[in-house]
What we know:
By secondary structure, the protein is mainly α. It has helices at about 15-20, 25-45, 55-70, 75-85, 90-100, 105-130, 140-150, 155-170.
Amino acid sequence: MSTQHSTPYVPALPTFGDLYNSGHAHSHNREYEGLLIVAQELNKPKSEIQKFEGNPKDYQRFIRQFNTRVCANTSSYEERLNFLLQFTSGEANRIVTGYSHLNAEGGYKAVMDEFKDRYVFLTECQHAVNNVASARALEYPENMKLIVKKLPFYLQEKWRNVVYELKDRREVVKFENLKLKRPTTLSMEEK
């Protein structure tokens, strides 16, 4: 008695080139392109959105991640505003919470405008001071005060401490002394 093992025939999916070269290119072309796009999206590594705490140097990274992961996948302002609440903390979350009483579209747009005013402006100022000679007007004390007022409170406090330290050493306070870095834990020497 002989036993035959047969594998059922499973036809291979046609490639894009096969469809394009056949007479059915126009009818199957869109369907196949759609399937390719879905397959590519499913195979992409999942990216995480890091919480935004209000540090101006982290703003561009956050907004790029938020636009890619949230805005590209929903047109609902309700969902976008809820995700902003979820992916922010500290000063940034207080801004989002402050506008969350508005209707979803108005609240979302107001938050994004506030973020741009507050965080894009500060990073552009730093870039201008470093790269444009005429931007030295930002070095004037009154202009630095106006800029520092836009910072989250913990960065304002940090700036105040830097200014006192520089004045104690009789050094000139410059915009470049404004280090917009996330606060870290104190080292043993600082405690």
